[in-house]
Amino acid sequence: MTGVYEWELRLGSEHVDRFRRLRASALFSLMQTAAIRHTEALGAGRDKTLDRGLLWVVARQHAVVDRMPEYDERVVLRSWPGETLRVLFPRYFELLAENGETLVRAGAVWSLMDERERTMAFPDEYGIELPGVETGRELPYLVKLQTLPAPNAFDFTVPYSYVDLNGHMNNTRYFDLTDDRLPAANAGKILREVRAEFHAEVPLGAVLRVGWGEEDGMYYVNGETDRTCFRMNLRYGGEAD
Q1: Cβ–Cβ contacts within 10 Å for residue 153, how many?
Q2: Within its chain, how far is the Cα of 122 from the centroid?
Q3: Which of helix, strand or coil describes residue 74?
Q4: What values do phi and psi take at 191, rounded to 5?
Q5: Is 53 left (phi over 0), alpha (psi -120 to 50) or beta?
Q6: Residues with Cβ < 8 Å from 96, sequence gap 6 or more?
Q7: Which of 9, 27, 155, 213 has the lowest tally of Cβ within 10 angstroms?
Q8: What's the pLDDT tens digit per position in 30-62?
């Protein structure tokens, strides 16, 4: 498909959990890598962004899982950009099995941040443009979160290993945080849907107050410092093999 990036890979031990299924953080890390590679191929590489003090950041993510692939499975990851909305860059993903079965569909919205000012940057001021593609397979990224009571709470201090080259906790590591704490993930329940919003960056050493609650397999997770930093819904269903 014209304008669609495609990446074939075999899932290794670094991608899966103890149930030998693709970890949520690994799924979003692969999507992040595909998005960056495609953006570079479209002419918006580090010479136009990072080297000029601009950082790519993720604001929203939405994913629906039909089946989570397993260790040693060959998969195909596809990614393409939507039409830019002034300062927002929609991006879409599909993860397919080797036989063409759709495993995961996802949508996200990215933006550019000024590295020094830590504020949103306007792409047209830097001559950054990504041509949008419409395939008919786009999963909406603007989805409403289900807010639930969050009676469970804990403090989390951002460690060095969770911080990326942008100088804050990488979006993929929020899924490691939730996997470590939520009973469904530890019990091997299958992740079926993710809705995530990232409102404020969280730097090294910051202490997040994380609250969570669950209702009928849907978890609501939020994290705050002196303001809301992130909110998530994670829906689980099915048992571990």
Answers
A1: 11
A2: 22
A3: strand
A4: -70, 125
A5: left
A6: 75, 76, 77, 78, 102, 103
A7: 155
A8: 999 999 999 999 989 899 999 999 999 999 999
Task: Assign 174 to helix, strand or coil.
Answer: helix
Q: Would you say how long the chain is, in residues?
A: 241
Please give the radius of gyration of the chain, using alpha carbons only, rounded to the nearest integer. 18
* pLDDT value of residue 142: 85
Residue of 99, 29, 95, 109 lying closest to 66 (CA atoms)? 95
Q: Which two tokens stand for residue 198?
A: 């990232």
CATH 3.10.129.10 fits 1-141, yes or no: yes
What angle is formed at CA 180 by the lines to CA 71 and CA 109, rounded to 5 degrees?
75
144-241 folds as: Thiol Ester Dehydrase; Chain A (3.10.129)
Positive or negative: CA dihedral 106, 90, 217, 70: positive
The reply to whether domains 1-141 and 144-241 share a CATH topology is yes
The domain spans of the chain are 1-141, 144-241
Structure-block tokens of residue 131:
């041509």
Q: What is the pLDDT of residues 162-180, one digit of tens each?
A: 999 999 999 999 999 999 9
Q: Residue for token digits 């951002």?
A: 158
Measured CA to CA in angstroms, residue 84 lies from 90, 112, 241 at distances of 7, 12, 42
Q: What is the pLDDT of residue 1?
A: 46
CA distance 5 to 235: 28
10-residue mean pLDDT series, the chain (241 residues): 87 97 97 95 91 95 97 98 93 96 97 95 92 92 92 98 96 96 94 97 97 95 96 85 45
DSSP state of 22: B
